[in-house]
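Slide 14.
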Amino acid sequence: MQKDNGRRAEETQIRGKDRKPRRTEGYQKSSPKNLVKARENSPIMQSQKVEMPEGYNAKVTAFMMEIMPKEPLDTQDVPEMERRFLNYVQKCSEWDMKVGNQAAYMAIGITKEQAWEWENVVKGNPARSDFIKKVRQFCGVFREGLMQDGKVNPVTGIFWQKNYDGMKDQTEMVLTPNNPLGEQKDMKALEQKYLESAYDGSEVAEGTFTEIAESPEGAEGQKD
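Slide 15: predicted structure.
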C-alpha cells in the first residue's frame, strides 16, 4: 500500500508541477474576522455593493435629456462644437454631475469613434483636432482630481485613465555597459603583454626572427 502511494506521488510530480502552496517561515494564519474585514475594505468588493440613493437614476436620465443636442451638427463648425462643450460643462456645474468623455461627446453631437479619428487622423481640419484634444484633456484633468481626492473607486479610476487618458503601467530598465574582460586597454599594450607571456618575458626586437634548433632525433631522422 505504501509503495502504491509512493508511485502515485512520483507520477504526480512527473506529470505536472506541484501546485501545493508553500508557507514561508513565520507564517501566521489569519483569523476569520480579519479575512472578512479585509474583503469588506477591498475596493473591488466596495464597488460591487454601491447603494444608489433614491432618485439617482431619475436625475441621471433627466441630465442626459438636458445635454442632448436638439439640432444636427456640422462637423466642420468648430466654434459650434466649442459652444456645445462649454454648455455641457456649465450644465455639469448646475446639476452637480461629474464630467465624462461619453457625456461630453453626446453633448457635442459626435461619437467616440469620431473623437478618436479627429484626434489621431487629421483630415484637413487641424482646428477640429486641437479642439477634441482639449476636450479629452479637460476630462482627464477632472478624473485626475477625483483620483487625488479619493472620490472615485481606484479600480474605476485606473480603468478610465488607461482607456481615455493613455496612461499605462511602465517600468524603466537602466542598462549599464559592462565589459567582462575589464576596462578596454590599448592595442599596443595588449600585444606587448601577449609577447611577454609567449616568450617568458624576453623582448623580441621588431623585424628580427629567432631560429628554433632542431632536436637530435629530428636531425638523425633527416640523415636517414
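Speaker note: The two ends are 81 Å apart (CA to CA).
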